[in-house]
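2024-03-11 09:14:02 DEBUG pipeline.ingest accepted 1 chain
2024-03-11 09:14:02 DEBUG pipeline.ingest length=129
2024-03-11 09:14:03 DEBUG pipeline.predict start
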Amino acid sequence: MDRLTIAFDEAPSDADALARSLADWFNDDEDLSGLAGVHLAPPLPGEMGGLADAVEVATAVVPLLTAGVSALGVWLTQRVRNRRVSLSVTRPDGAGMRVTADPADVERLVDRLERFVAGGPADGGGPAS
């Protein structure tokens, strides 16, 4: 199954917390439940387990994927109240885009992500954040 990957450009423990939070957010939604899972990075030598470094979202159903991007926007709005969140999104075809979300531009960012996920260019018609 093809997957959209959302990775966080944060310290490993912060990326783990963000990835798990986003996957839970998707899976707690009645319409999106079961579409998202975390990708675990292999543990470093001496560590007991790996940290989540990304969220993988199934892309089999495009209308649900569009709803997923909207859900990502709501989740980001809640997370960026006091800080910026940097992330990268990679489509199944390997195209990717890297963005930084802050409170002032989440709506614009969601529009760019929707166009990108639908197969548009990574720049989304505007400069990268």
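2024-03-11 09:14:41 DEBUG pipeline.report The radius of gyration is 14 Å.
2024-03-11 09:14:41 DEBUG pipeline.predict end
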